[in-house]
Design goal:
- With 275 residues, this protein is α/β, with parallel strands linked by helices.
- The chain contains eight helices and twelve strands.
- The strands form three sheets. An eight-stranded mixed beta sheet has the order 3-6-2-1-9-11-12-10, sandwiched between helices. Strands 4-5 form a two-stranded antiparallel sheet. A two-stranded antiparallel ribbon has the order 7-8.
- The protein is globular, with a radius of gyration of 19 Å.
- It binds adenosine-5'-diphosphate, aspartic acid (ASP) and magnesium ion.
- Adenosine-5'-diphosphate (ADP) is lined by residues 9-12, 41, 152, 174-176, 179-180, 182-185, 204, 209-211, 258.
Length: 275
């Protein structure tokens, strides 16, 4: 069976209606003949709330327990998405990181992938499961502890699964309908890009355009994953959104593709310091 990875970010699974809407999109791909791996984020605002609870309990928190708490948001959406898919007649099963297992380093809060063995999920596909719903953003260290990948990490989970399972494409469903020349919420003259090269997307992401986590673009470039960003709130087809691809697929590349910004930086200049 051809396989697709579909990732839904926080605003796309913010409540039960939106989970229903995302499940319907997954259902359409199953009807087209795909097996699907769905990667879900926590409901929007949930991860911030969990981080707040950790900091409110222990200002100098133990990073292992931070990860144990903060990873839980994705567990809820994975289970709810699997239930919703079952309700519309699609054989689906949820997977937390440790169940796959998604093996990572033990750098808590910023863990990196070590390996994603396919056996468990492949066996379920062979038994007739059509959709594996995997909790994004989390993994398992070799010490057997839950890890997280850093904020926005579900994008990277999605690309890593697309690479590990040889997916035809990795579709990142979000609250904008593609990658723009700059953040469309800040600048209403921003234009949607039909295609953007990996290198350019990497630059935009690393300079602050949070539409994709930087590491997801790095991974996609390294494993040549076809990566697409598109809206979870609109009807979409094969041509929707923005394709992030190799430069050779873009006929006429521009000198400047976009502008990124970051709100949490300050410039400090010191004058008249003798040495
Ligand atoms: P998700 O919850 O789906 O992961 P994010 O909030 O992480 O979504 O990323 C989507 C947001 O990225 C958009 O709402 C938009 O404000 C922001 N963004 C920043 N730069 C860009 C850009 N160049 N193109 C599109 N969106 C951008
Ligand atoms: N829920 C996590 C976060 O808010 C991961 C993600 O959404 O990608 O950072
Ligand atoms: Mg995100």
């Amino acid at each position: 069976m051809p396989l697709l990875v579909m990732k839904f970010g926080g605003t796309s699974v913010a409540d039960l209606d939106r989970i229903g809407n995302a499940a319907a999109k997954v259902g359409r791909e199953v009807e087209r003949g795909y097996d699907v791996i769905v990667i879900v984020s926590a409901m929007s605002g949930k991860t911030n709330e969990l981080v707040g609870w950790v900091e409110g309990t222990s200002p100098l928190y133990d990073a292992r327990e931070y990860d144990a708490v903060v990873a839980s948001g994705e567990n809820v959406t994975a289970g709810l998405m699997a239930l919703r898919l079952q309700e519309i007649g699609i054989p689906a099963r949820s997977w937390q990181g440790w169940q796959v297992p998604i093996n990572t380093t033990s750098a808590h809060g910023a863990a990196r992938f070590v390996s994603i063995p396919r056996e468990n999920i492949d066996r379920k596909f062979a038994e007739g499961m059509k959709v594996a719903v995997v909790a994004g953003f989390q993994g398992l260290s070799h010490e057997g502890r839950i890890t997280t990948l850093g904020r926005g990490g579900s994008d990277t989970t999605a690309v890593a699964f697309a690479a590990a399972f040889g997916a035809e494409r990795c579709d990142i469903y979000t609250d904008v309908d593609g990658v723009y020349t700059t953040d469309p919420r800040i600048c209403d003259r921003a234009r949607k890009l039909h295609r953007i090269a990996f290198e350019e997307m990497l630059e935009l992401a690393s300079l602050g355009a949070k539409v994709l986590q930087t590491r997801s673009v790095e991974l996609a470039m390294r494993y040549n994953v076809r990566l697409r960003v598109l809206s979870s709130f609109e009807d979409t087809d094969e041509n929707s959104g923005t394709l992030v691809c190799g430069e050779e697929e873009i006929m006429e590349s521009k000198v400047v593709s976009g502008v990124a910004y970051s709100r949490d930086e300050a410039k400090i200049t010191l004058f008249t310091i003798e040495d």
